[in-house]
Amino acid sequence: MNINGIGTTGYPAWQGARKTQQNTVRKNFAEQINNVAGAKPHTSIVYMKTDDMLFSGGNGTGLSFYIKYAEGSTEDDPTVIAKGVDENGNEFEQTIHINKINPRNASLVEMTALKSYMEVDKNGGLTSLPPESGMMGLSDRTDFMDMFQKQISDMKLLSQKKAAAYYQYSMQAYWDFMNKK
């Protein structure tokens, strides 16, 4: 019932119509988001770290994997197996020879294997790899040393001396690795 523009709910009639319109818009927007290009729901796989794993984790792209020593791995030729799913949900398995990793042209999985093998300090849970690596896919390759230098520069610019020192320490560990080859 409507009396002088006031509905029976105590609100002006136009306000009730507006609420209905807002609810419809919200519902349509939510439907659009859920139906973008027929997208299927995104699922993530998380590998729980076990005692025989050097690493278990992933990044923001959906890349998720674990790393274990390979059968036949030796002190002279440390070798690991990385297994997981890429950013598209496809399973992968890679054999990585640690001594063949080049931090100037490496994938995230290779650098994670090297980081895990070298036991580079995580500084209270942080990764020793630059944050930009968090958006790399399985096949992406980059110069991690340049990434470190940029991160150190950024941290100095922001007066984050402890973070800059930490990334400097991490980068030095990888320089030392490359110089031993």
Classification by helices and strands: alpha+beta
Widest beta sheet: strand line-up:
3-4-5-6
**Count of helix runs:** 4
- β-sheet strand percentage: 15-25%
Q: Give a quick account of the main beta sheet: strands, pairing sense, barrel closure.
A: 4 strands, antiparallel
- What is the end-to-end distance? 86 Å
Which series of helices and strands comes N to C? EEHEEEEEHEHH
Radius of gyration: 25 Å
Give the averaged pLDDT, no decimals: 83
Overall, the morphology is globular
Number of strands: 8
Can you put this structure into words, describing what you see?
The model has no long low-confidence stretch (mean pLDDT 83). The strands form three sheets. This protein has a four-stranded antiparallel sheet, with helices on one face. Strands 1-2 form a two-stranded antiparallel sheet. Helix content is 37%, strand content 19%. It has helices spanning 13-34, 108-118, 144-157, 161-180; strands at residues 2-3, 6-7, 53-58, 64-69, 79-85, 91-97, 106-107, 141-142. With 181 residues, it is of the alpha+beta class. It has four helices and eight strands; from the N terminus they run E-E-H-E-E-E-E-E-H-E-H-H.
